[in-house]
Amino acid sequence: MTALATIPPASEGLEAERLLADLARLLRSGALVPYLGPALARLSPVAAPTTHEALADFFAAKVALPRRAKGNAWAAAQHIESTRHRSTVSALMAEAFRSPVAPTALHHHLAASGAPLIVDTWYDGAMRAALAASTANWGEVQGITRAGIGEDRWYRFYDAGGRETARDAAETWETVLYKPHGGVDPVRNFLISDADYVEVLTEIDIQTPIPDIVKERRRGRGFLFVGCRFHDQLLRTYARQVSKRSGDRHYVVVEPADLTRNEVKFFAAQGLTPVAVPLARAVGILCGAVG
Fold it and tell me: What are phi and psi of 271, to 5 degrees?
């Protein structure tokens, strides 16, 4: 029986906080993989979008969008790519995330913990900045768009200095930062338009777009989802596939009032235990800052 199997499920209140304190110990031991979402950026003073809806609004403020694309970041990016070229999408993404997002206490905590694998699903550079400020031996693998690159590649590897490196280097890193949708740092890789995801979603069920180092380091470990929403099928698909063939117990920090019916069904289908603790307090508990 694994350590994860000894923790009972919890929903809210003191029971949920006690569970989260237990999960904090598993996180420090490397038994849980942190899976970070965009909401974490709200805990920092930030000018960058912190939801996909806010990113869609940013696109709408820059380019006139048809009604079908409004409010949907992926459709908005696809319209811009189709009418104004891919370079415009990349430039707008770089503008949206131009202001650096300061690492939160959780980013710094994870950077100092020696976590074998950290999954960060938003486009900002906060987790990279926290790792850069630590003494960790680390590197990063990012998902990349295959549009127009003329290569049969799904991702690229970068060392701590931001230089592209070979995949063999990842075996030597104590901590692997995995950005499945890309990021603004170090070289502005972005998966954002519908076209970016066409081939990925075709192949992801057989795991081709998932780096081998991620497959190796998730094995036997549970996942802890923090700052994430799963109200869109694409977000649910990525969470399902990135955590595939890992441990058998997973947890998600939630705000119950915000959950959709599809999210609740997703948690049940994936065996995700919801932990209903407000995000700021959850971060404090995970970092050991509050009891």
Answer: 70, 30
d(CA 278, CA 281): 6
Reduced DSSP (H G I as helix, E B as strand, rest coil) percent helix, strand, coil of the chain, to 5? 45, 15, 35
Residue in the structure block whose two tokens are 């939160």: 104
3-state secondary structure of 22: helix
For 126, residues 6+ apart whose C-beta sits below 8 A from its C-beta are 40, 41, 44, 100, 101, 102, 103, 104, 107
Which amino acid, one-letter code, is at 166?
A
- Which residue, among 190, 7, 160, 159, has the nearest Cα to 97 in the 3D structure? 190
End-to-end CA distance of the chain: give it in Å, rounded. 28
Contact predicate 177/116, CB 8 Å: no
Residue type, 271: G
Lookup result for tokens 């049940």:
268
List per-residue pLDDT tens for the chain, 291 residues long: 344 544 445 567 889 999 999 999 999 999 999 999 999 999 998 889 999 999 999 999 999 999 999 999 999 999 999 999 999 999 999 999 999 999 999 999 999 999 999 999 999 999 999 999 999 999 999 999 986 555 668 999 999 999 999 999 999 999 999 999 999 999 999 999 999 999 899 999 999 999 999 999 999 999 999 999 999 999 999 999 999 999 989 999 999 888 999 999 999 999 999 999 999 999 999 998 565
Q: Is the pTM of this model over 0.85?
A: yes
Place of tokens 């104004």: 84
CA 164 to chain centre: 21
The single residue listed with the structure tokens 């596939």 is 241
Rounded CA-CA distance 116/246 in Å is 14
How, if at all, do strands 32-36 and 250-254 pair?
unpaired
Distance CA 126, CA 29 (A): 22
